[in-house]
GIY-YIG nuclease family protein (Christiangramia lutea), 104 residues
Amino acid sequence: MDQYLVYILRCHDGSFYTGFTNDLERRLNEHNIGANFNCYTFKRRPLELLFIQKFEDVIQAIVYEKKLKGWSRLKKQSLVDGDFDRLKILAECRNATHHKYKPE
């Protein structure tokens, strides 16, 4: 059965890169040698692998990757650190129109 991986890299400049692959070793090698001049990581090497999540369903992996790409740096850092309490707090809606903030 195929396996798909969503991963987070820390770039040399401290930024995060989130990606998706079915061959992590090949993909990390491509990032590290700078195989794609247009890739976000090209000018941000060396890179450090921080997080991997495995999926058997390609659609689930793609959806998860897109979800992570929309997260703030703090949320990604909390995921990488395994700090799920902080991640839960950061995921809470802080909008003034949220039902939590409306008087009853």
Summary: The chain has a mean pLDDT of 92. The beta strands are 4-10, 16-21, 48-55. Residues 72-104 form one domain. The CA atoms of residues 44 and 96 lie 38 Å apart.
